[in-house]
Design goal:
heterodimer, A: 209 residues, alpha+beta, 5-stranded antiparallel beta sheet, 7 helices, 5 strands, 20% strand, B: 246 residues, mainly alpha, two-stranded antiparallel ribbon, 11 helices, 2 strands, 65% helix, globular
Chain lengths: 209, 246
């Protein structure tokens, strides 16, 4: 009898372990649920929804790391005052941009599809997810790079869409702007974007479908 | 004929000599023609906003999803023979046989490619001469923006020209064995329709990027180069992000 129980446990245990999501996957899954819950909550105003999303975003993204990385080698060229101003503006801009994206993704489904370690970064895990778009458009593969900050805390440090890193793209953009108009020019650019997050850089772009 | 082939090889060899090995760091992007590229990019933007994007929207929103899906499968299917050839050139015989099998099954049972019979068709599995050069170890070379076509690099531009002239579908159309008049017109039209289909599947993404990037040209350049590096370099494309909090 004891043997039978042991055998049973031995057979069931690996099975349940195989199905258990990693803590990083659970972290992303819960964040997705919280975000969707906020989107579908009809009892709060749009402003409250945006404030709630900004809070969720600030808590779960390591914006200090993302911002520092996005400025690249220009971080060292910037004065301490410029660094501080940059970080503040960067965080405001990213929250504004993602809030708008979040509004656009209303009604779409979000599924976590496993995770893989990141080569050469022991604390990082890439959590794979899929966003199923409405209106017959193909699903989008989105990978969330999650860093273990210790003590059971996780933070997102990069979002990869179809294998393209948003943080690297941002760094490349910032590098190009700094080359043209210096760090002050970049700060000015971000300031303008924060003041008017939905502005389209090119004229004549129609609204999101 | 022999002389022109030799000239072509010399030109190709010179072009490849310009293609330095691929560099992963975005701060070392090779874009010596940036002023010209930005000019062509602005031209393409104008063309897209005024003409291509509205056409792509019309295409996506007028036709039912079912019809769009059939057409998309057919467009991908017609690129399979070129992929088969390139998989062989890359030494990937599994890729080649799968691609060939897909083409044969989808073109017959799948009613001229309208249905994906085996169910494993994907745009990501298409490959061309640019990929083949990359697998042979040739770097991207300088970044280029091509009129109408958009972001590219020297390696992929040479690849595109090779793809055009070497496409078995185009060769078959020209051979006369299919009995079609105006083979060049037909082939070019299919290529343009393939482009429109691809554009119509990126409506949200491009609109989002246009609205949210501070320097759209630099963003597109980075995305193109990352995308190519990810396709040719496998899964290990995650950037090195240091821990700044220590």
């Amino acid at each position: 009898m004891r043997f039978a129980v042991a055998l049973f446990v031995a057979c069931i245990m690996p099975l349940s372990l195989a199905f258990a999501a990693s803590p990083q996957e659970s972290f992303i899954g819960k964040l997705g649920q919280d975000a969707i819950g906020m989107l579908s909550n009809q009892s709060i105003t749009l402003d409250q929804r945006h404030a709630g999303f900004a809070k969720l975003f600030n808590e779960n993204f390591d914006l200090k790391t993302i911002g520092h990385f996005a400025l690249g080698r220009h971080w060292r060229e910037a004065s301490e005052q410029q660094q501080q101003e940059y970080q503040q503006l960067f965080e405001k801009m990213v929250v504004a941009v993602y809030t708008q994206r979040f509004d656009n993704y209303a009604g779409q489904q979000f599924e976590v599809k496993g995770s893989t370690p990141v080569d050469g970064a022991a604390a990082d895990t890439l959590v794979h997810s899929q966003i199923v778009q409405t209106g017959g458009a193909p699903p989008v593969a989105v990978d969330w790079r999650v860093r273990d900050e210790g003590g059971g805390h996780y933070k997102i440090i990069d979002v990869m869409v179809e294998g393209v890193s948003m943080t690297v793209t941002q760094r490349s953009e910032f590098d190009s702007i700094v080359a043209q108009s210096g760090i002050d020019g970049l700060l000015q650019n971000i300031q303008q974007r924060v003041a008017n997050p939905a502005a389209a850089p090119a004229p004549g772009i129609s609204k999101q479908q | 004929m022999k002389k022109s082939l030799k000239n072509l090889l010399v030109v190709a060899a010179t072009l490849f000599a310009l293609c330095a090995p691929a560099l992963a760091d975005d701060e070392t992007i090779s874009d010596p023609l940036e002023p010209v590229n930005r000019y062509v990019f602005a031209f393409n933007e104008g063309l897209d906003v005024v003409f291509i994007e509205p056409l792509a929207k019309l295409y996506r929103f007028v036709l039912p999803d079912y019809v769009l899906e059939r057409l998309h499968h057919a467009f991908v299917n017609i690129r399979e023979p070129l992929s088969t050839v390139n998989y062989v050139l890359q030494g990937n015989l599994d890729g080649a046989s799968e691609s060939l099998l897909r083409f044969l099954a989808n073109s017959t049972i799948g009613l001229a490619g309208l249905y994906d019979v085996i169910g494993d068709q994907s745009e990501d599995k298409l490959t061309g001469l640019g990929d083949t050069f990359g697998r042979w170890g040739i770097g991207p070379g300088p970044y280029l923006v091509l009129p109408l076509i958009g972001p590219s690099d020297l390696r992929d531009t040479v690849g595109l020209v090779g793809d055009y002239y070497g496409d078995p579908v185009r060769i078959a159309l020209h051979s006369g064995s299919l009995g079609v008049d105006h083979p060049e017109t037909i082939y070019t039209s299919v290529q343009l329709a393939f482009g429109l289909d691809a554009r119509s599947r990126l409506l949200n993404q491009i609109d989002d990027l246009r609205k949210n990037s501070l320097d759209f040209y630099a963003a597109m350049r980075s995305i193109y180069l990352q995308h190519r590096a990810a396709k040719l370099g496998g899964a290990t494309s995650a950037p090195e992000i240091p821990n700044y909090n220590d």
